[in-house]
Amino acid sequence: MSTTTGQGVRTTAAKPGRRPTIKQVAAAAGVSTAAVSQAFNDKGRLSEATRQRILDTATELGWSPSASAAALRSARTRTLALVVRRPTDVLGADPHFSELITGIEGELAPRGYGLLLHLVAGAQEENALYKRLAAEGRVDGAVLTDARADDPRPALLARLGLPAVLLGPPDRAAAVPRVGLGHQAAAVEEVVRHLLGLGHRRIAYVAGPADLKHTRLRGGVFETALRQAGLRPYAVLHTDFTEVSAVAATQALLDAADRATAIVYANDSMAMCGIGAAQRAGLRVPDDLSVVGYDNLPLGRWLHPRLTTVDQQVQRVGAAAARLLLARCGEDVEEAALDDRPRLVVRESTGPAPG
Amino acid sequence: MSTTTGQGVRTTAAKPGRRPTIKQVAAAAGVSTAAVSQAFNDKGRLSEATRQRILDTATELGWSPSASAAALRSARTRTLALVVRRPTDVLGADPHFSELITGIEGELAPRGYGLLLHLVAGAQEENALYKRLAAEGRVDGAVLTDARADDPRPALLARLGLPAVLLGPPDRAAAVPRVGLGHQAAAVEEVVRHLLGLGHRRIAYVAGPADLKHTRLRGGVFETALRQAGLRPYAVLHTDFTEVSAVAATQALLDAADRATAIVYANDSMAMCGIGAAQRAGLRVPDDLSVVGYDNLPLGRWLHPRLTTVDQQVQRVGAAAARLLLARCGEDVEEAALDDRPRLVVRESTGPAPG
C-alpha cells in the first residue's frame, strides 16, 4: 500500500473542461492503459524508450497524473473522503448533509466504494487531515465542500496527488472541477419576485451564519432585489441553522405590531419550524404569513401546507460530484448532467399578502 | 501499515461485562502498556522471559487481544466503519441514520477519527467488506447495525481481529458488546396505554418493512397490548419508510367510514407526513385524530401540533457506541451511560378520542 506515484510524475493542477483520459494517452502512444499506469508508476517491463514515449505523449495531451494518481497507485482504497467543516450537531440539525451523503452513496455503494466522513473544526485541521490521508494512502480522492475565496485546498490536493472535486457553482477558472448549480443569485431573485408579485412588501430573511459564503451571497442578492423594487428587507436575521434559533427568529419577526407578511428561510428545516411557530401563534400559512424554504427536502412536500421552496437538487449534486470524482479516480463512469440553476418550487405556503 | 497482529495473538471473542484492559494487564505484569503492545506485536526490545510473562498474564486475566487488535497494530487508521445494509435512498428518507451518524461523529471528530460509511445490499456483501477492510488495514473497528438472529458477524470480526460493537438491545450472552436501549416492548406498550387512556379504541399502526426484526417485534407488542384490552388493531400497514408510502397508508386509514381515531407510526418522519395528510383531508390533530411517532427527531418538537413520540435517543446511542468502540480500540475514553429504555414523550399530537 504505497502512496508514492512513481518517478517522473509531475503533479500539475488538472484543467477542467478539457480532461484527457488515460485511454486517450494509451491510444496516442499506441500502448495499453496498463502500460501508461506502469510508465508513471515506474513498474512493469516497459523499455525505457516506451516509457519515455508514454510520458511525452501524456505531457503533449495535457494528461495530468495528479488527476489520476489513484489509478496509478498499486492499491486502490475504494474510499472517497468527504470532509465537512461544521460543528457536529449541524449534521443532525440540517438534513442538507444527509441529502448530500445520500446522493454520493447512491453512486459509491453499487461500485463497492465507501465514504470516509470527517468533521473538522477549522481550515488548518482540514488541511492537515488531507496530508495525513494522502500520506497514509487512505483515500482515492476527496469531495471538497464550502467553496471559499483564496481556497488553498485545490493546490494542496494537486500537490498531494489526490483527485478532488469541489461542491460549488461552476467556475471555469477553478483549479479543481466544481460540481453544483450556478446562478444561485437568480434563484433568490425568483423568490423575491414571487413574493412581490403576491403583493408582499414586508419581507424578512432568516439566514444562516454570517460567516458562510453562501449566506453573504444570498443575503446580498435578497437586498438588491428588494431595492430594485424600491423596498428594503423587513429584517435579516442570522441563525446557526438550528431549530431553536429558527423558532426564535420567527417569533421575533411576528411579535412586532407591523409584522412581516412573508419570511424567506435559508433552509427547509428552518422554514418548517417557522411555519410551526407561526401556526402556534395563531397565524394561518399562507393567509396571514407566506413562507419560503431552500433545499426542497422530501418532507416539505408532505406537510400542511406544502412548502414553497428552492430546489437545490442536493442529492443530484452529490451524485454528480461522486461520478466525476470516480471518473477522475480511473473508474469508467460517465459524468452526470445537472440543471443549470436552482429553481423555485411554488406550493402552498406562499399566497397573496394579507389585505 | 501492516494488518497482522503479531505472533502469539489468539483471537477469541471478547467477554462482555468483564472486559479487562491493557492497563490491568500491564499493572499485573509489572510493565508498561507499551510493553504489552510490544509483547503481542512482536516488536520492541523485550526479553523472551518478559514477553512470555506478559502473554501469560494477559491469558490469566482473560484479556482478549482481538478486542485490542487496533491498539496493537503498528499504524492506527483512526477510522471506524459503519456498514448499513439498506437501499441508499433510505438514508435520505429516514433521518434516523443521520441522527445516528451525528451521534457517532460527535465522539470521533474531537479525537481526529473519521467514519467510513459503506452501504451494502446484502449479508454476503457486508461480510466480504469486513474481510477486505481488515485485510487492507483500513479501519480500527466497526459499528454493526441491525442485530439479527444467528448473526455471523461477531465471530467473523473476532476472527479478523477487528473490535466491534453492535447496535441493539443489551444482551449479556452476545459475543460482541451491544449498545442500545432495552425494553422496546415496554415503550410500545406505553404508547398503547397512553392512547387507550385517552379513550381511543380504533388504533392503527403504520409499520416499517415486514422483514425487519424491529418491525416484527413492535408489531407483535402492539397487537398483544391491544388484545389485553380486549381490542384488535384497527389495521397494521407495512411501508418502506418513505414519505409517499406513509401518506398513502394514512389516506387509506382515513378514507374508511369508521376511520381510525389514532395512528401510531414506526418513525417520526412518517408521522409528520401523516399529520400533513390528515390536516389536508380537513381533520384536526389531535381533535379528530391522534398521532404518535417514534424516534424523537428534533423537528417534531417544533411543528404544529408538536409531535408525541417515543424517544429512542438515537444520537446518544450513536455516541455511546462510538465511545465503547474507541475504548476497545485502545483510546482512553469512558463508556457513556444510556437510559434503560425508550420513553414516550407526550406532546400535542395526541388527545382524547373524538366523542
What does this structure look like?
2 copies of one chain form a homodimer. In chain A, the strands form 3 sheets. Chain A has a 5-stranded parallel beta sheet with strand order 2-1-3-4-5, with helices on both faces. With 355 residues, chain A is an alpha/beta fold. In chain A, strand 3, helix 8 and strand 4 form a beta-alpha-beta unit. Chain A is elongated and about 85 Å long. In chain A, 41% of the residues lie in helices and 12% in strands. At the A-B interface, helix 5, helix 6, strand 2, helix 11 and helix 12 of A face helix 5, helix 6, strand 2, helix 11 and helix 12 of B. Strand 2 (114-119) of chain A pairs antiparallel with strand 2 of chain B, so a sheet runs across the interface.
Concise summary:
The first copy, chain A, is an alpha/beta fold.
Distance between the termini of chain A: 70 Å
Percent of residues of chain A in beta strands? 5-15%
Low-confidence stretches of chain A: 1-18, 66-74
Summed over residues and divided by their number, the pLDDT of chain A gives a mean of 84
**Could you say what the CATH topology of the largest domain in chain A is called?**
Rossmann fold
Largest sheet: spatial strand order of chain A: 2-1-3-4-5
Q: What's the helix and strand layout?
A:
The structure is a homodimer of 355-residue chains.
Chain A: H1 22-29, H2 33-41, H3 48-61, H4 69-72, E1 79-84, H5 88-93, H6 96-108, E2 114-119, H7 123-135, E3 141-144, H8 153-160, E4 164-167, E5 178-179, H9 184-197, E6 203-207, H10 213-228, E7 235-238, H11 243-255, E8 262-265, H12 268-280, E9 290-292, E10 309-311, H13 314-328, E11 343-345
Parallel strand pairs in A: 1-2, 1-3, 3-4, 4-5, 6-7, 6-8, 8-9
Antiparallel strand pairs in A: 10-11
Helix pairs in contact in A: 1-2, 1-3, 2-3, 6-13, 7-8, 9-10, 11-12
Biased composition (Polar residues) (chains A, B): 1-10
Protein name (chains A, B): DNA-binding LacI/PurR family transcriptional regulator
GO molecular function (chains A, B): DNA binding
